[in-house]
Amino acid sequence: MKLIKVLPVILLLGFFSCNKFMDIVPDNIATLDQAFQLKVTAKKYLFTCYSYLPKLGSPSSNYGLLGSREIASPYPGSQAPGIPNSILELGYDYQNTVEPINNYWDGANGGVALFQAIRTCNIFLENIGKVPDIEDVERKRWIAEVKTLKAYYHFLLFRMYGPVPVMRENLPVSADVEAVRITRAPVDEVSNYIAELIDEAAPDLPPVVYNQREELGRITVPIALSIKAYTLLLNASPLFNGNSDYADLKNRNGAALVNTSFDNSKWVKAAKACDDAIKAAHSAGFRLHYFNAPFDLNAISDSSRKLMDIRGAVTEQWNPEQVWVLTNSSTSELQRFCAPRNEVYSYTYSLWAANLNACEIFYTKNGVPINEDPTWDYANRYTSLKTVPAEQRSIMKPNYTTSSFNMDREYRFYADLVFDGAAYFMSQRPSETNLLYLPTLWGSPSTSGGLSRVSFTGYYPKKLVSWKTTGSGSSYTPDSYAWPAIRLATLYLMYAEAVNEAEGPGAKAYQYLDSVRARAGLKGVVESWALHSRNAAKPTTKEGLRNIIQQETMIEMIFEGENYWNMRRWKRLDLMNRPITGWDFQQKTTADFYRLKTIYTPHNTYRDFLAPLKEYALQVNPNLVQNPLW
Predict the structure, then answer these.
(1) d(CA 414, CA 344)
(2) By CB distance 3.0 to 4.6 Å, which of 67, 455, 507, 533 could disulfide with 372?
């Protein structure tokens, strides 16, 4: 009998009592013959293939949250309960080759063992044909699911390391030493293989999950096609498409791992893949999220409703925008880090701070960048103070003095952030006449935890906190939602980007871009720039629209971890090196509080576009080569 070396015991959907497809702990089955002897044991192995999915809803696992520096936390992190120092270190340039942070290659230091995940998928694919008591249709579906998971695990490696080995099948136990010493495959080969796996799988996947009680979270056609779209978009992006920085990235035999010649057909393929994913999502009923207010909240203001349209896209569980939801981790701890203490509840970790510098990315109320709108005082954004008009009570405390930086911004600024004087819409205080306003000056309820439980920039990432979360005094009960790994809005922006790069500006590029903006309460890009920007023609050129789409993506995806990868695939060192800044948060007066402080200035180079391989892995397998400059 052939022994199974690794069969993890992991509970994928453990924290939901009804919406789950795996509420069992797989048996520690000793042999492959036993694992695939019956349908019931084979199904457990299927769920083991799912068990390697990264826990993106966990603050200790989604390193893109802090790595992007959109969210920051004090270093070295002794004040952050439950968060490994390595996660915090990633935001402070402590990546290294001795013990790489979030090592997904080897499965160490916070990283998932993705090659082990792929090996598990291959074992399943090699043996599922042995199971006698399973209908052919169901067998095909399971095979398609595992092929998609295998493709996704390759994608995660591809996104992190670039050229990686393609594991089409497991090496036999009898393989000699040289056969085991695999090499990295060129990025085009990796991308093509992922796409091929999805193409093989898609015909046998369901368009939606029909048995929602037991199967929510399992792979469907829209999920699979979205993974293909992500992959082809990454391969078409500047990081891998005509990047001369990687001219010397070659295998030991001299074979180039990145094609340094630009190929526009990659963008054409990416646009087609995005379009296919969107059409599949639409056919399955997915659409942008708009707040469905409970009957007793129908009287909330238009401004509050618009803020909730935006805020709920992530936190409103199973809403129609969420194409793929990962239910393998609770977001309770995540919300404890992001939620500020206040007069309703006084106990949360409240330690994750929104980077003020990153918040510059939000538009003005006119839907254009703050440095392009002539009606917005960009030069004095950090120094002048203003009084909040009474008619803006749904957004900020009326007649309250605040920084001009916080004034006259788009709805996403107020939906995604909470700061001194900002409205904090929550289930316990939903009334427009009794809204909770957050004071953050030193000595206010938000600072009751002292230096170990407060935002050190003056801003909190409200976007990740459900409005249904409740508390009273020292009690705090997060409304734990499942993490949306793929949102329809993301696919819309990916399509706009790919079409603009492939064909240039036009109705096709504007269509979905404007849909995302409309949900945020903004006019279309052409109209907004014509009426409110110093650069009215910007949306009409490929370069101008590229800049707009990238900024729109950064805004829409802020605090979700995705921009960690977007900045890298765009080769945007200017964004990666944004300083972490904030207000002088330990001050008790408004005038003293609103003094800009620089907390940390990054020093990334193009080395940081890709993660390093561990030195030991290179010693064990001399056929592997290290990523540039590591």
Answers:
(1) 20
(2) 533
d(CA 454, CA 351): 5
Which residues, other chains included, contact 224 with Cβ-Cβ below 8 Å and sequence gap of 6+?
144, 148, 151, 198, 201, 202, 205
Bridging pattern class, strands 401-403 and 385-387: antiparallel
Does residue 521 contact residue 301 with C-beta atoms inside 8 Å?
no
Quote the tokens at residue 363. 């538009």
Give the start-to-end residue ranges of the domains of the chain: 301-484
Residue 433 pLDDT class (50, 70, 90 cuts): confident
Higher-scoring residue by pLDDT: 59, 229: 229
184: left (phi over 0), alpha (psi -120 to 50) or beta: beta
In this predicted model, what pLDDT tens digit does every residue of 461-498 receive, in sequence order? 999 999 999 988 888 999 999 999 999 999 999 999 99
pLDDT of residue 84: 66
50 touches 88 (CB < 8 A): no
221 HSE (CA, 13 A, CB side): 19
Give the global pTM. Answer: 0.93
Report the C-alpha gap between 489 and 610 in whole angstroms: 26
Q: What is the mean pLDDT of residues 518-524?
A: 98
Give CA 217 to chain center in angstroms. 17
Q: In the numeric block, which tokens belong to residue 293? A: 């207010």
- Cα separation of 593 and 577, whole Å? 25
Residue for token pair 């890009």: 525
Give the Cα separation of 326 and 323 in Å (integer).
10
Mean pLDDT, the chain, whole residue set: 91
Query: Which helix (H) or strand (E) element contains residue 267?
Result: helix 265-283
In 405-520, alpha helices (H)? 411-416, 488-503, 507-519
Which tokens hold the place of 114?
Answer: 């993705």
* pLDDT of 23 above 70: no
Pairing type for strands 483-487 and 322-326 reads antiparallel
Nearest CA to 508 among 549, 536, 553?
549
* Interval 308-325: pLDDT, tens: 999 999 999 999 999 999
Exposure string for 552-589, b = 16+ CB within 10 A, e = fewer: bbbbbbbbbbbbbbbbbbbbbbebbbbebbbbebebee
Rounded CA-CA distance 422/24 in Å is 44
Residues 52/335, Cβ–Cβ less than 8 Å: no
DSSP collapsed to 3 states, 310-377: HHHHHHCCCCCCEEEEECCCCCHHHHHHHCCCCCCECCCCCCCEECCCHHHHCCECCCCCCCCCCCCC
Token duo for residue 580:
């972490």
Residue 14 has pLDDT above 50, yes or no: no
- Which token pair is 158? 């591809």
pLDDT value of residue 2: 36
AA letter at 375: T
